[in-house]
């Protein structure tokens, strides 16, 4: 269509030039005719003036004399003869003048008509050269004239007097008035023409005419049809790919749930160290396979254009802390540090998509932990005008310029061959695309051998009144931090400073002792000392039993990793904190509000090796749970976990059986239903609707439902929730999270029952 439009523009320009030339010629010829006509009028006027001069010069006197003589002689014959001669002369004079004028007018009209005929012929010649059709018709749609192209294509050498319909031309309405799509059977086959009509007037007789022009657009239409068919085929293939991925995802996630769940159950039994090592390898491989499935699904979603952000008000501080806590175990296992600090200018709540930003942070920080073998990973969040900047700095091997150029490509990785094999190379590519959807960016600066810094930026609107809410919350706190150099010490120091406190760093017990006494002598009395668990021996040797230190009245705080909290005595300290540090915990401890370690609840599927005891049943000593799962391995796994937690489990493997059990009356109804979304007996979403409908009709209280599914798509999750589910959990299901959700849903249901 674009080519057609360009061709029409060129044609219009050519026709405009031709019309201008034609009008110029016609105007010049008309001017000549007007000049000649004016000349004839002038000659007639000269003849009239000459006759008048003759009349006045004596002819009138002679005629008058004759009339007088005839009147005096009383001769009627002479009088009538004289009058007749005068009248005849006058009539002859008028006839001569009229004839001259008509002759000149006909000559002028024939000249204009001749010019129009020449212009029409030239117009037809131009379109013949372009392969276009031109047709002139009267208002009865009868053809008056047509160019050679029309005659050749229709096989009618003399189409005058016929209509286009009689010739066999089919008209279809076009996009605008007087525009049509026309099909013509030509010697080359059926062709499609773009036809346009213009109303004109014949200059010779003033008759209205239809001047039509048509251009062959068959190739353009065929190309457009091919593009549309290709688009439909691409959409079909995309939908087929999505269905394939959803099916493959389900088929992979189902056995993965069994593998990871069984390894969890095995870890709860007595095992030798060798068996524990084998289980750790199985669990890590299972989580790697889970991450591969996640990356492939996310990549497919972005590729087919179904990726959408869903922003809501969330706390970036808490989101970052949860991600750092999830990755802390990996870092501590490798003997490296991880820490984060957030600027006090950042408000508590901001509008962003927390799920997608969590995915980006987990990929970027997780990569930093994976490739760093010594030192640590430090995350800093700050505000730059109306942009959030999250920088992730590591002390890893760094990257060359060539590696930096390709690190955000699909299936691209940096590092050694061994490091490359531990991933898909999709994480950073997906993260970069997500940040582009945010309106931001993900960039990297690195130097070989000195580490890397990834920068995550995205715009955000923050009202001025929301800025700086925490910049003085620790005002008056003077803290001495006894810790080895690294990311953890940097994170604590910057956090205290940005919250309005004063932090002094020392790396050994003797320096700490000297600095405390010097500060006291200068009147800058310290309020707290934070001791890293790696410095506990230094603290015991130089500070713990010194009277001069005790006289300062310091609050002594112990900082420990969660994995080692039971390996150190805490009787020498007034309070303690867990690494990586939570900002609110630090505030509470330094302001004297909290003394002990807070409970960590940042559990996630992507947290391999983090062992937590199974929550005990806390509601009526146990729940009646109806488990609907057709896969025997997963059914055995979930049943074992639930029964180990003290719950009574009834297992079904068919949707119809599930409905019968869930709708039972009296005390036999289950407290909770845990159901797979795909089972024999129907569709899971339809089952939810039927169950909720039966409950309303029978006036039964709704039973809480937790749905397990391998389909991670947001639209599938929304459909499940809209049809009555209380929770949706994606396979493979973490055992701890499942049991936690069971307790939470049961507690909520109990509160609602009491309210009724």
Structure, described:
With 756 residues, this protein is α/β, with parallel strands linked by helices. It has five domains: 1-130; 132-216, 2-Layer Sandwich (Beta-Lactamase), CATH 3.30.450.20; 312-466, Heat Shock Protein 90, CATH 3.30.565; 478-590, Rossmann fold, CATH 3.40.50.2300; 624-755, Rossmann fold, CATH 3.40.50.2300. The protein contains 21 helices and 23 strands. The strands form five sheets. Strands 2-1-6-5-4-3 form a six-stranded antiparallel beta sheet. Strand 10 and strand 11 (387-394) form a beta hairpin. Helix 13 crosses helix 14. The longest helix has 72 residues, at 2-73. The protein is elongated, with a radius of gyration of 48 Å. The two termini are 67 Å apart. Mean pLDDT is 77; it is low at 1-5, 18-23, 25-33, 417-423 and 597-620.
The CATH homologous superfamily of the largest domain is named: Histidine kinase-like ATPase, C-terminal domain
The main sheet orders its strands as: 2-1-6-5-4-3
- Quantity of strands, as a count: 23
Q: What would the average pLDDT be, to the nearest integer? A: 77
Give the CATH level 1 class of the largest domain: Alpha Beta
- Look at the helices and sheets and give the structural class: alpha/beta
* Number of H/I helices: 21
CATH architecture of the largest domain, by name, is: 2-Layer Sandwich
CATH topology of the largest domain: Heat Shock Protein 90
Termini separation comes to: 67 Å
Q: Approximately what portion of the residues adopt beta-strand conformation?
A: 15-25%
Percent helix, as a range, is: 40-55%
Low-confidence stretches: 1-5, 18-23, 25-33, 417-423, 597-620
Give the overall shape: elongated
- Largest sheet at a glance? 6 strands, antiparallel
Number of domains: 5
Q: What's the gyration radius in Å? A: 48 Å
